[in-house]
Specification:
Blueprint: H1 2-11, H2 27-34, E1 41-45, H3 51-59, E2 64-68, H4 72-82, E3 88-91, E4 94-95, E5 100-107, H5 122-126, E6 133-142, H6 144-150, E7 156-161, H7 167-172, H8 175-179, E8 183-191, H9 202-211, E9 214-225, E10 228-238
Parallel strand pairs: 1-2, 1-7, 2-3, 4-6, 7-8
Antiparallel strand pairs: 5-6, 8-10, 9-10
Length: about 240
């Protein structure tokens, strides 16, 4: 049908081309359209190698960006990637529901490292090897609420979370700031396929965020496997009263 319509327009003397990506195709462009602060405060939780931080800097030139990455090797890459940006603050910490230390499962692909163990069914969805655990190390953790108190941060304009199955624990550690609805836009990765042991259900996220006064505002980058949704990015914003 798409090719047929293109031919039809060509015959009529018109050229069809794809428009530039709109706000509904990128969660951070979506957030950019909503956030009006002159110097927004952005949190990149699960910063990995700094890919998201680089993207956020493009969209928010004046923002202060806090990057959290507990895995030593990934943190080193993050440091090098963002070294020239004085408004990016890096923290070798994992955000969770408690302060202290936790065991991180270090997988073949560092992008899949998690505080949760890999589910035996992960390879059926994502392929062999990516989620194989090669080592387990101790990493430091804190809660988002505790960090904000320590750093005198009263509100967050954009909270991005990609912690490979432990996003729910991050929200549990943010009960105060969420209950005050002091986060402007929340963007997080939600895995729906069986990937990690003890990962939470989508309904758990909806219940928790809705209990704090947040509503679903967008769904981005859906990935399907065998015709079923396996993963997507979700955006929540404070619910209108």
């Amino acid at each position: 049908m798409k090719r047929f319509l293109q031919k039809l327009f060509n015959i009529a003397g018109y050229q069809c081309r794809r428009l530039a990506p709109g706000p509904n195709e990128d969660p951070f462009v979506f957030a950019q359209h909503l956030l009006k602060a002159a110097q927004p405060v952005l949190f990149d939780v699960g910063a990995h190698h700094g890919q998201t931080a680089t993207r956020l800097r493009e969209l928010f030139p004046s923002a202060i960006i806090h990057c959290f990455e507990p895995f030593p090797e990934s943190y080193s890459v993050l440091e090098r990637a963002t070294a020239g940006d004085l408004r990016i603050q890096r923290h070798r910490l994992g955000l969770s529901d408690r302060l202290g230390t936790a065991k991180m499962n270090c997988n073949t692909s560092t992008a899949t490292n998690s505080l949760l163990a890999t589910d035996r069914r992960a390879s059926a969805t994502w392929g062999e090897g990516l989620y194989d655990t090669a080592d387990r190390i101790d990493v430091r953790t804190t809660t988002l609420d505790a960090f904000c108190v320590a750093e005198s941060i009263d509100s967050i304009d954009l909270l991005k979370i990609d912690t490979q199955g432990t996003e729910y624990a991050v929200f549990e550690g943010a009960a105060d700031i969420l209950s005050r609805r002091a986060v402007g836009v929340i963007v997080f990765e939600m895995i729906t396929a069986k990937t990690y042991e003890r990962q939470r259900l989508p309904s758990d996220y909806f219940k928790l965020l809705e209990s704090h006064g947040y509503a679903l505002s967008g769904v981005f980058s859906p990935i399907y496997r065998a015709g079923l949704l396996a993963q997507c990015d979700m955006a929540f914003t404070p619910r209108e009263c």
